[in-house]
Amino acid sequence: MAGVSLRPHVHWAQRHRELYLRVELSDVQNPDIAITDNVLHFKARGHGAKGDNIYEFQIEFLEPVEPKPVCRVTQRQLNITVQKKESNWWERLTKQEKRPLFLAPDFDRWLDESDAEMELKEKEEEKINKMKIESRVPKDPFRHLKKGYLIMYNLVQFLGFSWIFVNMTVRLFILGKDSFYDTFHTISDMMYFCQTLALMEIMNSLIGLVRSPLIPAVLQIFGRNFILFVVLGSLEEMQSKPVVFFLFYFWSIIELFRYPYYMLSCIGIEWKPLTWLRYTTWIPLYPLGGLAEAVCIVQSIPIFSETGKFSLGLPNPLNVTIQFSFLLQLYLIALFLGVFVNFRHLYKQRKHHLGPKKRKMK
């Protein structure tokens, strides 16, 4: 049996250019709202004063309004904003002089005419002041050049890491586990190029081209380059270790989403699936990448101890040799501290971009 049609409680307020209607219905379903011949027609199912029913009402406005109302549904109520055709103050909402029983003032938003004029004046002054401030700020004559540089930088890095990822994936499917052992000899040239080019990110942050904080960028880039150039690049024994495959793979997957996100941001485009991937995939991949780096360090310590490579012998009277392997053990501690710092930074970034937005409650 169809529900009985009832009128909901409606509260209203106005400004010189707008009308605000607050319909006291929760869990609104299928709202049908239209303005024809200056009459607002409302019909919806929701939970109101008479329980779960179909509620409807009509309001013929005192003066002409725009025929396209804006509706916003929340869990507790439904808000309708209607634009006046002319900016002025109405003595009442409806054409009929007697106020309908279901209609009442919205005292949460109510202002008298003088207060509304003051509010309107403040908004106009704020807009004018903003325009004055913007006009005083000199435009950067190199802004297009900077934007073009950042787009090209991110594009080149994306293409480089895409080549690494695709190459490693194809080799994995063709060769299976055998691809683990020659990853460095196949991929290292491109990885050298990408990680050397990544030093520009530190420069970009230093000179203010990007707003990224400097410390996380320094920790990540110098950490990676230390592993790549010092640990792997200087020890042939490390270059055939399976851990190199996983290290390069984790690094490349992270960058597959990071660089396209930054590239689109340079031209003011935000693609929500890419934003989600950019600030989500690091959650498993970043700790795994840090673990792979730690494994590289641990596996290289015996080799550096045996060969004495990069060890520093102090002259007499100290006659002490500082083993590079000992420095690597200290670096392990710094590595996990760096992972923690970057993890905390990325978590804040994720919360900022993907966290729930605060809503103002009326």
From TrEMBL:
Which pathway does it take part in?
Answer: Lipid metabolism; fatty acid biosynthesis
Q: Where is the CS domain?
A: 5-94
For membrane topology, the record states: Multi-pass membrane protein
Segments crossing the lipid bilayer: 149-170, 190-210, 217-235, 241-261, 282-304, 324-343
Q: Which GO terms describe its biological process?
A: fatty acid elongation; sphingolipid biosynthetic process; very long-chain fatty acid biosynthetic process
Q: Where in the cell is it found?
A: Endoplasmic reticulum membrane
Q: What is its main location?
A: endoplasmic reticulum
Q: What is its EC number?
A: 4.2.1.134
Q: Which reaction does it catalyse?
A: (3R)-hydroxyhexadecanoyl-CoA = (2E)-hexadecenoyl-CoA + H2O; a very-long-chain (3R)-3-hydroxyacyl-CoA = a very-long-chain (2E)-enoyl-CoA + H2O
Stored Pfam families = PTPLA
The entry's cellular-component GO terms read:
endoplasmic reticulum membrane
Single annotated GO MF: very-long-chain (3R)-3-hydroxyacyl-CoA dehydratase activity
Against InterPro entries, the record matches this protein to: CS_dom, HSP20-like_chaperone, Tyr_Pase-like_PTPLA
Keyword Transcription regulation part of the UniProt annotation: no
Sorted keywords for this record are: Coiled coil, Endoplasmic reticulum, Fatty acid biosynthesis, Fatty acid metabolism, Lipid biosynthesis, Lipid metabolism, Lyase, Membrane, Transmembrane, Transmembrane helix
What's this protein's family per the entry? Belongs to the very long-chain fatty acids dehydratase HACD family.
Query: What does this protein's UniProt record list under function?
Result: Catalyzes the third of the four reactions of the long-chain fatty acids elongation cycle. This endoplasmic reticulum-bound enzymatic process, allows the addition of two carbons to the chain of long- and very long-chain fatty acids/VLCFAs per cycle. This enzyme catalyzes the dehydration of the 3-hydroxyacyl-CoA intermediate into trans-2,3-enoyl-CoA, within each cycle of fatty acid elongation. Thereby, it participates to the production of VLCFAs of different chain lengths that are involved in multiple biological processes as precursors of membrane lipids and lipid mediators. Catalyzes the third of the four reactions of the long-chain fatty acids elongation cycle. This endoplasmic reticulum-bound enzymatic process, allows the addition of two carbons to the chain of long- and very long-chain fatty acids/VLCFAs per cycle. This enzyme catalyzes the dehydration of the 3-hydroxyacyl-CoA intermediate into trans-2,3-enoyl-CoA, within each cycle of fatty acid elongation. Thereby, it participates in the production of VLCFAs of different chain lengths that are involved in multiple biological processes as precursors of membrane lipids and lipid mediators.
**Stated name of the protein:** Very-long-chain (3R)-3-hydroxyacyl-CoA dehydratase
Q: Which organism is it from?
A: Patagioenas fasciata monilis
Q: What is this organism's lineage?
A: Eukaryota, Metazoa, Chordata, Craniata, Vertebrata
Tell me the name of the encoding gene.
Answer: HACD3
